[in-house]
Design brief:
By secondary structure, this protein is α/β, with parallel strands linked by helices. The chain contains seven helices and 15 strands. The chain has a six-stranded mixed β-sheet. A five-stranded parallel β-sheet has the order 1-4-7-10-13.
């Protein structure tokens, strides 16, 4: 039991740079209080002391603003940052190394008995104000953006944003292909950057997919030509695109056009 407590407290230091020492974490972090008391209330729930477990969880809710049903199953090193307004339902299951921010709801969409709350894999992060609803599954490493409403299962290592939630993350294989094409062309894979607007990321990613498919077709055509005695051009290096120069030229053209526009107005 004490090893689990040490893990719960210790994980704060890796996820909150504001944490200074163990005493401060134990005495001032409501997320830690809620998790530690949930361990106790869940033990009571498993041992058929359901009313006592509910009373304990209700007291913790008054104190911390975090409501965790005693029946919820929570893994190791679970961290609730800030915590106010977090609600975790009875049949929710949370894996190891997960993080929830304030205002998160792991709720149900049905009044029927049985499994009606989400299951989170390992290393899942749910942003502030997000709602994850129903008996869905969030795969290992999934990320849910702030204020998203997720009602469908999310694959591993994917990112979900919006209302209703939609995928914006990339599978590892596709991401690697896009990264390779972007590197060959001489610019970063914009679709994977954190500050890129979603429509632009969507367009760039499709462009990279298209270029990747064209490269594959060109390689196939070259192989066929070599088979019938054509010239071997596989060693010809693809020229790199100097994106910085292109951007500079574009800026110069914009400046020139704006100067001309001013002259015309005069």
């Amino acid at each position: 039991m004490f090893s689990r407590i040490r893990e719960d407290v210790g994980c704060v230091f890796t996820r909150d740079p504001a944490a200074r020492n163990v005493f401060e974490v134990i005495t001032t972090y409501p997320g830690i209080h809620a998790v530690l008391f949930h361990r106790a209330s869940h033990w009571l729930w498993q041992n058929k002391l359901c009313w006592v477990a509910r009373v304990l969880s209700n007291v913790v809710r008054w104190v911390t603003g975090i409501e965790i049903h005693p029946g919820a199953i929570i893994g190791r090193r679970f961290f609730i940052d800030h915590g106010m307004g977090v609600v975790i339902g009875e049949t929710a299951e949370i894996g190891d190394d997960c993080t929830l921010y304030h205002g998160v709801t792991l709720g149900g969409t049905s009044w029927d008995a049985g499994k009606r709350h989400p299951t989170l894999g390992n290393n899942v992060v749910v942003g502030a104000g997000a709602k994850v609803l129903g008996p869905i599954h969030l795969g290992d490493g999934a990320r849910v953006g702030s204020n998203a409403v997720v009602v469908k299962s999310v694959p591993e290592n994917a990112t979900v944003i919006g209302v209703p939630g939609h995928l914006v993350g990339l599978h590892a294989e596709v991401s690697a292909e896009r990264e390779a094409i972007a590197k060959k062309m001489g610019f970063d894979a914009y679709g994977t950057s954190s500050d890129m607007p979603d429509p632009v990321a969507h367009a760039i990613n499709h462009m990279l997919d298209h270029i990747h498919l064209m490269d594959k077709r060109m390689e196939t055509m070259s192989e066929k030509l070599q088979d019938v005695g054509g010239e071997d051009n596989s060693q010809i290096r693809m020229p790199e695109m100097e994106c910085c120069e292109i951007v500079s030229e574009a800026e110069e053209l914009l400046e020139a056009s704006s100067v001309k526009a001013d002259e015309i107005e005069r």
